[in-house]
Specification:
With about 350 residues, this protein is mainly beta. It is about 5% helix and about 45% strand. It has 2 helices and 26 strands. A hairpin with an 8-residue loop joins strand 15 and strand 16. The longest helix is centred in the first third of the chain and has 7 residues.
Length: about 350
């Protein structure tokens, strides 16, 4: 493993050769040299992972190296206090020095972590770090993560390749992040116990797997994936063994507070505050369609009956699972609205704005 952090670009340029003359250094940094083939294009490379965007730009290049600036953007609606970018080095490529980030390389995978002064990013804000690379002049294609609420670096549990075969318990509302090498396919979760919040990387993207799930329904569920390779899809497949990765998760229920709140038709547009563990009961006439949430996972659906088109009153029960804000809403419906010539009956919306606190 190598770790490099330098305070400024001047350190990177100094490595090129302290004894070189100004003229020789200027020649070294030109886009092409006489009698040689032109280097590769310096077009930016970008990747977006969940709530973090990473864009690499080749500032200058020469035969045997390049200077690269990477821009990190918080694409979440929430503030972040730290970030990390990862990418796979090109064959023969190495990180010589870096500034405005701490850069480590292990097994060809490079990770850049924020410095103490540029980790905090408001929604939409950006920062940069730079590197000098040796070897082929190939711009990195980084992906990144941050700890804005709901992202993989903010997860309650993080799983890696070493966790295969593990069994763990999550409470409804908790999150689990999966970080695997680029040779793994994007993971999948069976059933409805986990909802996927984000997923990036994995075969054949060449980027490490970064997936995030939230536990939403009690019960058992497995997260699974396996390795893959291009040669396995040839007419005569190679003999590379396939490695299975699987984790067993038991999603536990939310402890009840014993408090029950009931909403009816007259509560339309109400602002309501609940505590984690409170029971919410919604009772509406039969012409309302099943209820929907704008932010999944905050409320755990216990059961629901009736509503359009059953002809029975709509009743739904929820438990407040985690802190946050969500809208719980529905709309009226009728059979004549689905005929070839729909009736002019207007649809009436019903929405309650919820805040769940500890």
């Amino acid at each position: 493993m190598s770790v490099m952090a330098v305070s400024g670009r001047s350190a990177a340029l100094a490595i090129i050769g302290g004894a070189a003359s100004t003229a020789a250094l200027a020649l070294l940094m030109t886009p092409a040299m006489a009698g040689g083939a032109p280097p590769q294009s310096a077009a930016p490379a970008a990747a977006l992972t969940g709530s973090c965007g990473a864009t690499a730009h080749m500032d200058s290049q020469w035969y045997g190296g390049e200077i690269v600036t990477v821009t990190i953007t918080n694409t979440s609606a929430a503030a972040a206090t730290k970030w990390a970018a990862t990418w796979t080095l090109a064959t023969g490529q190495q990180v010589v020095s870096a500034w405005n980030a701490t850069v480590t390389t292990t097994g060809g995978i490079t990770t850049a972590a924020n410095a103490s002064y540029n980790g905090a990013l408001a929604p939409g804000a950006s920062t940069t770090f730079g590197m000098q690379l040796s070897g082929p002049a190939v711009a990195p294609t980084p992906s990144c993560t941050n700890n804005a609420p709901g992202t993989s670096t903010d997860a309650d549990v993080t799983l890696t390749e070493a966790d295969t075969g593990r069994t763990l318990t999550l409470q409804v509302g908790q999150t689990v992040a999966v970080h695997l090498g680029s040779q793994y396919l994007p993971p999948t979760a069976g059933g409805t116990n986990l909802v996927q919040l984000s997923s990036a990387g994995g075969y054949p993207s060449g980027q490490p797997v970064a997936a995030l799930y939230r536990a939403v329904v009690p019960g058992p569920v497995d997260i699974t994936t396996h390795t893959d390779a291009a040669c396995l899809h040839d007419p005569l497949p190679c003999a590379i063994p396939i490695a299975l990765w699987q984790v067993h998760i038991n999603v536990a229920d939310v402890p009840s507070t014993g408090q029950t709140v009931t909403l009816t038709q007259i509560d339309n547009t109400r602002l309501l505050s609940l505590h984690v563990g409170d029971l919410l009961v919604v009772q509406l006439p039969s012409m309302y369609r099943p209820l929907e949430l704008s932010n999944h996972g905050l409320l755990l659906l216990r059961d629901t009956t009736g509503g359009y088109p059953t002809g029975q009153p709509l009743t739904a029960r929820y438990t407040a699972a985690i802190q946050g804000r969500t809208d719980l809403g529905t709309v009226t419906d009728s059979a004549c609205m689905h005929q070839p010539t729909p009736c002019p009956t207007p649809a009436v919306a019903w929405t309650v704005h919820l805040t769940v606190t500890a």
